[in-house]
Design brief:
5-stranded parallel β-sheet, about 230 residues, Arc Repressor Mutant, subunit A, alpha/beta, about 10% strand, single chain, 5 strands, Rossmann fold
């Protein structure tokens, strides 16, 4: 059975065409704002969320960015960010805010659909820039609950190696490694959500306050989406 999804995107072309372009997904709702989705309250396996939703001068009350993710997760939704955003700390902040996956709009349709299906099934999709951040945090003991095998897998994936390449290095099957990676990304995502901006700044050698512009640290929702919108 196809997973039920909701699409939140302010581009009408994307909302109207998503179901046609992604035949493996059952699009039961396609709306322009998080507020509208919450009002409708559809039952879905995942919400596909554009990170930047509206012109803040025209619609100053629309939640977007980190605030949108947190609003959806508070209402019990699993969120997959679908965005052109490329800044690695913004992407990491999305994971810290509760996003189960991040998929780039630059990816080919077939690849994006596979990733959406992974997230809808309970998997965690972490983009390469965020994997690199997580690997540094692990190496510097900011995230510690990993086995030696998990560290080896993370090391390989952080360097852009494919599942097949890492599997050959570790003498395991590719299917086994994918299972390891599924568990590993979920554990790392949960660990990232528990870290403060200060802890991450110290581990990465950043100046104090560098992450406060967009990190999901429990600050007021309105400030969060305003900052991300302004930093585009």
């Amino acid at each position: 059975m196809r997973p039920a999804v909701a699409v939140v995107d302010d581009a009408s072309l994307i909302r109207e065409s998503f179901g046609l372009l992604m035949p493996g997904l059952d699009v039961v709702a396609a709306v322009a704002t998080v507020e509208e989705l919450v009002r409708r309250a559809p039952v879905v396996d995942v919400v596909l969320l554009d990170l930047h939703l509206a012109n803040l001068e025209r619609q100053p009350d629309v939640r977007q960015g980190i605030a949108a993710i947190r609003t959806l997760t508070r209402h019990g939704y699993r969120v997959c960010v679908y965005s052109q955003e490329e800044r690695r700390f913004v992407l990491a902040a999305c994971v810290a805010a509760g996003a189960g996956g991040i998929v780039s709009k630059a990816l080919p349709r077939e690849q994006a659909e596979r990733l959406f299906l992974d997230v809808a099934a309970g998997g965690t999709v972490v983009p390469q820039p965020v994997v690199g951040i997580l690997e540094v945090l692990v190496r510097r003991d900011c995230i510690t609950l990993l086995s030696e095998r998990q560290r080896q897998i993370l090391h390989g994936r952080a360097r852009g190696l494919s599942y097949a390449q890492v599997a050959r290095q570790l003498f395991v099957s590719e299917s086994t490694l994918r299972g390891y990676w599924h568990d590993l990304t979920r554990s790392l995502s949960e660990s990232l959500r528990s870290l403060t901006p200060g802890e991450i700044e110290r581990a990465l050698g950043l100046a104090p306050g560098d992450l406060l512009e967009f990190w999901a640290d429990g600050t007021d929702d309105r400030k969060e989406w305003w900052r991300i919108g302004r930093s585009r």
